[in-house]
Amino acid sequence: MKPKDLPAPADAQGKYKIPALRALSEITTSLASESDIEDLLERFLGTMIRLAGAEAGAVRVLTTDGKHLRLVGARGFPAETLREECHVDVQCSVCSEAIRRHAVDSSSDMAKCLEPTGASLIAHRTHRVVPVPLRYKGQVLGVYNLYLRTGKKIPEDVSMLFRSVGEHLGMALENARLSRENMRITLMDERQMLANEIHDSLAQTMAYMKMRMALLQDSVIDGDCELSFRYMNDVSEALDSAYSSLRELLSQFRNRMDPRGLIPALEDLASTFRKRTGLSIELRNQIPDLGLTPDQEIQVFHIVQEALANIHKHASAQRVVVTLAQSDGKYRITVEDNGVGMSTPESPPMHFGLTIMRERADRLKGRIAYQSRPDEGTTVLLTFPAPRAARIPRR
């Protein structure tokens, strides 16, 4: 047996273990703190090339249409090649092989891989491509392509590392996609909420003004001064109401929720409400650990904010109490005032923002209820399921 045919010593085979483990540790640590997954993919391309002993490398991610792979980063390629390889068809020989087999493997089909770009500057140095698919639950979301010299083999330790890296980064790509999707949904929901707010506070008032202006025009044409002055006064009052509502809306949407969480945000809201209106407001928190998601906190915050705005505009109250409590596996958020109450609490007027508050309660899988009597104040009650962890009694 020739010396070159002898198996590599154990210490030579294991020399990659420490660098490989170090790289994996660095990647998993970065996943917890890195906000831009594509920056992370590009940054670790150099590590992948170094561990594989490759001459060049590229990393691509699947486009939203699922038909192309977009170049995120590359090393060892000429600039003109990168411009031509910004997007490649998903059926490209090497990438298609990685997606089909879902495995770290080597390929010698360099001709088809380099043919579309004419990357002759690396073709004479490399003859094998190792694709490392980035997959999540059986779906490939991207791929590292590592270009090796002829006869170059990737150690088993490094191959196992690449499989683990592919799973970790595939999961990170899926999480990034879900985050973008959730952000779009949240943005659309908030825009719908804003549209509802404008409809309830401004659109109805302006529609009233438009009708009154038509009547005013008719009365002026008829020479009826008494009616003309009455309609002018109606339009003036409606204009004042619309201006007040607009300022209220601007104040609400500028008052963003405190990033520290719901309780600090409600404390700041109560303080602002107290200074702006002069009303006495008390916040009672009877839940030691809320455990809500950020989206749930936002919904509760805006419901309380809307309830306080309604009290200021309609209740003529002197005192308000906001209470956070828990019972029977549900959170109960109440906003109580000692104002004039509502004559028909079962069907309150639309300007109380019921539609908006109910939509936010629906997002919490909860409901809004009202308890009120004339001259005895109003209680707004929000109930929704507590998180599973919060339902477990503490010993």
Layout: helices, strands, pairs:
Layout: H1 10-13, H2 17-33, H3 37-43, H4 45-52, E1 56-62, E2 68-75, H5 79-84, E3 87-89, H6 93-101, H7 110-114, H8 120-123, E4 128-136, E5 139-148, H9 156-222, H10 225-254, H11 262-277, E6 280-285, H12 294-315, E7 319-327, E8 330-337, H13 354-363, E9 367-372, E10 378-385, H14 388-391
Parallel strand pairs: 6-7
Antiparallel strand pairs: 1-2, 1-5, 2-3, 4-5, 7-8, 8-10, 9-10
Helix pairs in contact: 2-9, 9-10, 11-12, 12-13
Verbal overview:
The protein is an alpha+beta fold and 395 residues long. The protein folds into two domains: 3-180, Beta-Lactamase (2-Layer Sandwich), CATH 3.30.450.40; 256-395, 2-Layer Sandwich (Heat Shock Protein 90). Helices cover 53% and strands 19% of the residues. It has helices at 10-13, 17-33, 37-43, 45-52, 79-84, 93-101, 110-114, 120-123, 156-222, 225-254, 262-277, 294-315, 354-363, 388-391; strands at 56-62, 68-75, 87-89, 128-136, 139-148, 280-285, 319-327, 330-337, 367-372, 378-385. The protein has a five-stranded antiparallel beta sheet with strand order 3-2-1-5-4, with helices on both faces. It has a five-stranded mixed beta sheet with strand order 6-7-8-10-9, with helices on one face. A hairpin with a 5-residue loop joins β1 (56-62) and β2 (68-75). α9 runs antiparallel to α10, α11 (262-277) runs parallel beside α12 (294-315) and α12 packs antiparallel against α13 (354-363). It is elongated, with a radius of gyration of 32 Å. Mean pLDDT is 76; it is low at 1-13, 116-124 and 345-352.
